[in-house]
Amino acid sequence: MRRIAYAFIAMLIGFTGCTSRETPTDPTADAGGDASITAAPTWAPVALGGLPRQEVSGSAEDINDLGHIVGTTAHAAGGARAFLWKNGVMRNLGTLGGEWSTAAAINNAGQVVGTSARGDGKLRAFVWAKGTMTGLGTLGGSRSEAADINALGHVVGWSYLTGDPKVHPDADAPIAHAFLWRNGTMTDLGTLGGTESRALGINDKGHVVGTSLTRGGATHAFLWKDGVMRDIGGADASTYFITANAINWSDQAVGSGVDGFSIVAFSWAKGSRQILPLGGRAALANDVNAAGRIVGGLDPLDQLRQAFTFKTGIATILPRLPGGRTAEAVGINKNGDIVGWSEGSRIRVNEPVLWRRQ
Fold it and tell me: Where are the chain's structural domains?
């Protein structure tokens, strides 16, 4: 899961699996019709299983246009392992020498990014390609985490700064900044004037979205392009966009924010913000494909969390695995295939799942 340090963002991200994604460049993909929320499902859930000698518990985080899936499953000894699921076979991607790893995103070239513990216990963002996991370093601090990768192999995430500085000695964690890693170099993207930022998504044009503290101490979503970080959170103090989790080729960004006292799913495009009309207690938009189809998690008033997909004003609740009560959609590819997690027949055990477009 993307670990956002701010308390309120942690609450928001806390009900998502993990967010980051391949952002396909074909604007005609997934152009089929929408199913209404009451119609028969047009996606079928497929349990992906687990790694050998591991409990089947975890989440699928991303899917590329070839149908290759990455995510994380729980390790029998108490840790976790990043996995790559391809042609029905789940592969353990290993670690950087530590006890655990998590995978966040995959591009069409098969490059996977995520976070792993090293042998000394420190955490590093990584790129995995052709069987080799490589740590990406940091912005000078002791920790980094990767959230997304685009078609060019550019990676975004966040890192502690040199010396692991804190806002004050009693702070829970050191200050972290969003980074962009290109061609072996990690660049600090800065902030919206506050102390911290996180980069969570990148498209194939190299435009980056995430979340940052502002100069006034608020938490707002940002769009970074052409070397400039722009505040897209909005000026209204009661309705604003807090975190942008993903961005597609058309620069449509999705995430979550606040509307009064409610946590709501947002979509932002061309300077205009839209609250998705989903209802419920809380909602989070986790990903969006090139056709503008959004996926995420919704907490209805009278149910546990449900996975949804949304396009052109119509929301569809995705079916859970047999016996399951709760689910969440985390990633989507250009074909409209969706991944995430669903509870199965074992209560309180979440399984990696693929919702295949029918």
Answer: 7-357
- How far apart, in Å, are the Cα atoms of 16 and each of 77, 81, 87, 164, 189? 24, 18, 26, 27, 25
The confidence score (pLDDT) of residue 245 equals 98
Give the C-alpha separation, 25 to 21, whole Å.
13
Alpha-helix runs per DSSP H in 242-337: none
Q: How far apart are CA 224 and CA 148, in angstroms?
A: 14
Domain 7-357 belongs in CATH node 2.130.10.150: yes
Question: Which residues, including other chains, have CB under 8 Å from residue 97's CB and lie 6 or more apart?
Answer: 117, 118, 119
97: left (phi over 0), alpha (psi -120 to 50) or beta: left
* pLDDT tens per residue, range 80-98: 999 999 999 999 999 999 9
Question: Considering the chain, what is the average pLDDT of its residues?
Answer: 88
Q: Which long-range contacts (CB under 8 A, 24 or more apart) does 49-52 make?
A: 49/90, 49/351, 49/352, 50/74, 50/90, 50/351, 50/352, 51/81, 51/83, 51/90, 51/92, 52/92
- Within 8 A by CB and 6+ apart from 272, the residues are none
Strands (E), 226-349: 228-231, 239-247, 253-259, 262-269, 272-275, 282-288, 294-299, 306-311, 314-317, 327-332, 338-343
pTM of the model: 0.90
